[in-house]
Amino acid sequence: KRAVTMEQHCGLITGNKEPVPLKSISVTLSINDFVASVSATLNYENEEKVPLEAFFVFPMDEDSAVYSFEALVDGKKIVAELQEKMQAHSIYEDALSQGHQAYLLEEDDYSRDVFSCNVGNLQPGAKVAVTLRYVQELPLETDGALRYVLPAILNPRYQLSEPSAKSCVNIKTPKVPLEDLPYTLSMVATITSQHGIERVQSNCCLSPMQYLADDKTSAQISLAEGHKFDRDVELLIYYNEVHSPSVAVEMGMQDIKPDSLMGAPSAMVSFYPDVPEVETSKACGEFVFLMDRSGSMGFPMNNQNDSQLRIEAAKETLLLLLKSLPVGCYFNIYGFGSSYEKFFPESVRYTQETMEKAVERINYLKADLGGTEILKPLRKIYKARSIPGHPLQLFVFTDGEVSDTFTVINEVLFNSKKHRCFSFGIGEGASTSLIKGIARATGGTAEFITDKDRMQTKALGSLKFALNSSVDDISLSWDLPPGLTACMLSPEQTAIFRGQRLITYAQLTGTMPQEENSGEVCLKYTFNGRSLENRVTFSLQPKTNASFTIHRLAAKSLIQTKDLGFHETSERVKEDVVGISIQSGVLSSFTAFLAINKELNQPVQGPIAQREIPRPIISTSCRAHKVKHRFRKNVFMQLISRQKANGSWELDEDLAKILRTNLEDIMTANPVKDGDPSTWATVLAVLWLHANSEDLKCEWELLERKSVAWLHDHA
């Protein structure tokens, strides 16, 4: 009944121009090395003459460990308690009916990256500030940057199932044009690292960075005034030194059982395994590319004027990936929307003929297949017979607009032993829950792409991971003083790739040494039959931290492993997750934060008016898209498209035109007159890449390697 009322109200908000009770959002961000601590305050004011209940639905990164929620009313702080979700809903409704002010914060039942906040019984003229706090590990980009995103874009999500229609994304988010959005966003960020801060890049206007220390180990930046919710706020943080292995130990809470999750000291271990690079041109595998062709892929990558359409960027990326595949592997390409299509009835061997057929079809791909129905093609791929000696590597490109993400993640998890999945979230607002969830389930990698060049760089980086031999027999061993043991809290790592970071959490139980002492942790693994190890020594004098950051991140890691969504998790595991969630104070699918102000005891006059906080409409489909291709990038793509499956180029007029010369001059300059002209053509093409596209090297590195291998065999 409540959901129906809310759906009816959706149109009223924007139609009747009632005042929106949310006035501003202010964010304080503190980044220490690769961990972000965030405090976000929502400021409400009721300018109407009736009591209100305000709903606000907003996106969050799915790795956020939300551990605190409180309200400040007339100078009085009301701290929320974490409770089982159904119970919290019931108490919330009772509190409102008794005339109390009540506040509720919860994760969506169908996706871990959508949250809703209810502010109930906001009296006429009343002001209230609600604050939520969370901590999060920051992902490491291939160029060494750490990436923090404050999501602002919440796209509509396609419903995979009847129940997911009840997702709060589909019910509680009225839309208004961007210029009519009545609330503002401000953000101040403080960054600290012993490595020294080199620079911070952003897709938004920032104030100039101010160093707070002479050695540049601390700095502050802020979002320029007037930020509209037309894009996610992304920060890329570069430190002066390469990241190095570390172990941080944090004291547990004093007043609870010393051997419990929050009572015992917790350790956070970060390794950067030194995985050797191997020759990839002779690699094998079955490479399946699953490309989103839903209507929303016809939108731009982001909201800047010259932004390329998502589907066009995806097509160029697919072409580069195809050209970079090793000879002798197998491949297939699926497009999906409300239905799905595949290029070949089953995966085919990679030859000149099959590659040409695929390239031709890529050119005609459009965002014309309707909704985002990803389950059917996934199931089809998993049911296909496997090819002996060619392990399945799945590349998923999607804007992630699916409401029931847990169903998809569980399907991938069920088939995780037979493949690795590399996922790419395309455009702003892609579901972090879906993209990270399917990669995590299979030991693959997840990437988020909001502009075309980075899509190609990241996709080729992931292909390099997929082509590299995987690291096996991964184990962590601890050398600790007598009486102290380490109990792992993170799931076992099944795959490590070159250039990746490995983070694990452990609980230290037993007796901590009284005097200064140290421990050692050793990461062991085998690679191509060789045994390798990385060691790091650390101090056993745990630091105290009022926010218990490491404990909260460890709890989040545990919850993510067990919590498969409100409708997909067994009752026994639900109880386990609720226990971990309530003990650690970290929100889950099955718990909610609830705060009640019992001092407000005025009986409510008539029904409380419900107000959904609107989100902006990003007018993507009606804007003119003037795609500004740089000339050189165009020439680069023309050259790549003419490369053959074996890595060579043919010597012809088309190649001469691309190299801005004529065929006669090229043939005259050929030092081997009676040899295969393809050899000379390939040498010139490779030289052109080095001379003219050095900044795009990460995009052509694999296909160039194939060319050089071909030259070694033929020249």
UniProtKB/TrEMBL annotation:
Residues 6-136 form the VIT domain. It holds the Pfam family VWA_3. PROSITE patterns: VIT, VWFA. Signal peptide: none annotated. Gene3D superfamilies: von Willebrand factor, type A domain. Residues 286-471 form the VWFA domain. It comes from the Eukaryota. InterPro entries: VIT, VWF_A, vWFA_dom_sf. May play a role in tumorigenesis as a tumor suppressor. Altered expression of this protein and disruption of the molecular pathway it is involved in may contribute directly to or modify tumorigenesis. PANTHER family: VON WILLEBRAND FACTOR A DOMAIN-CONTAINING PROTEIN 5A. This is von Willebrand factor A domain-containing protein 5A. It comes from Myodes glareolus (Bank vole).
